[in-house]
Design goal:
The protein is of the alpha+beta class. It has ten helices and nine strands. It folds into three domains: about 80 residues, no CATH class; about 40 residues, no CATH class; about 50 residues, no CATH class. A hairpin with a 2-residue loop joins strand 5 and strand 6.
């Protein structure tokens, strides 16, 4: 069988497989190490992945997303497969990444990015306020510069109830452990029970 040649999709395929299967990959800790996999159909055949991509919306510049459909199907950790993947824009991908953190204000729930666009408040400002444990209402309604927040330390707790780490913020914990800060923030805000295999609380 003649191999399909498509440089961009070959690069996407190679990167996908490496981050899910190779512990030496710089991004493996965010993918394979936390259970994210590539389906056998694609793992066994690069050409099958390329054929699927060309028939399912691939365009130069689009990004391969596995999270949206995995979430809809209740698959966790997410996986790369024909059933769970789609090609989306970079903006859509960034927005979905932030969907793990919702803000509800006056009976309206949106992503951080959507609130940022609507209110004209920088995305990083809203993100930082939530990391510090601010309520949704306070994060949205407080004018920029009106309050200088003080840091709250958070603790990482294992299944035995032991504190195994202390961090200045959800962002710092996420960066050190390779866990998206949104999952940690959701635990701190009572919206989830655990993130990264740990429970989280304020010191």
């Amino acid at each position: 069988m003649k191999m399909i040649r498509h440089e961009d999709l070959e690069n996407k395929y190679r990167a996908m497989v490496l981050r899910c299967t190779n512990p030496n990959s710089s991004t493996h800790k965010l993918y394979g190490a936390v259970g994210i996999t590539v389906c056998k159909e694609w793992l066994d055949s690069r050409d099958t992945f390329i054929e699927w991509s060309l028939a399912n919306g691939y365009e130069k510049g689009l990004e391969l997303d596995k999270d949206m459909l995995s979430d809809k199907l209740g698959i966790s950790p997410s996986t790369y497969s024909p059933q769970t993947c789609q090609y989306i824009t970079h903006a859509e991908n960034c927005n979905y990444t932030s969907r793990s953190v919702y803000i509800t204000y006056k009976d309206k729930t949106q992503t951080i990015m959507d609130w940022s666009k609507e209110l004209g408040i920088e995305y990083k400002t809203l993100q930082y306020r939530l990391e510090l444990g601010w309520s949704d209402e306070k994060a949205i309604s407080t004018p920029v510069g009106a309050i200088k927040p003080g840091a709250k330390y958070i603790v990482q707790i294992n299944n035995d109830g032991e504190v195994v780490g202390t961090y200045e913020s959800a962002r710092e914990a996420g960066r050190v452990l390779g866990i998206h800060f949104g999952g940690i923030s959701n635990v701190l805000r009572g919206r989830a029970k655990s993130a990264g295999g740990f429970t989280w609380d304020y010191q």
